[in-house]
Amino acid sequence: MDLWNNNVGRKYNKKSKNRQELVQLLKIALKNGELIISLDDLRKHMKSMSMRAIKTLWGPSSIHI
After folding, report:
1. pLDDT, position 40
2. Cα–Cα distance between 36 and 28 in angstroms, integer?
3. Stronger pLDDT, 50 or 65, i.e. the higher one
4. 53 vs 5, 23, 62, 63, CA distance in Å?
5. pLDDT of 16-28, one tens digit each?
6. Gyration radius (Cα) of the chain, Å
7. How is the chain split among helix, strand and coil, in percent rounded to 5?
């Protein structure tokens, strides 16, 4: 859940010009259901992460395709 929401935050941080705009964009994201707010949410953070980000977090040897 945290990795998913962090990724959403990074996405909107790139689009915002300042902190106030970021807060507004994140409020909209929350209202639109883009953030995970329940442990029952079935979305997984892996879907939102690039392979590069996954390799950075867990190392190249963690990726087996």
Report:
1. 84
2. 13
3. 50
4. 14, 24, 12, 11
5. 999 999 999 999 9
6. 14
7. 65, 0, 35
3 state SS of 21: helix
Task: At 26, list the tokens.
Answer: 């994140």
pLDDT computed for residue 41 by the predictor: 83
Look up residue 42 and give its two tokens: 């079935």
2-8 own/partner pairs: CB under 8 Å, 24+ apart: 2/45, 3/45, 3/49, 4/35, 4/36, 4/43, 4/44, 4/45, 4/48, 5/35, 5/36, 7/45, 7/48, 7/49, 7/53, 8/34, 8/35, 8/48
Domain span at 27: 2-62
If one counts the domains in the chain, the total is 1
Sign of the C-alpha dihedral computed for residues 36, 40, 43 and 48 taken in this order: positive
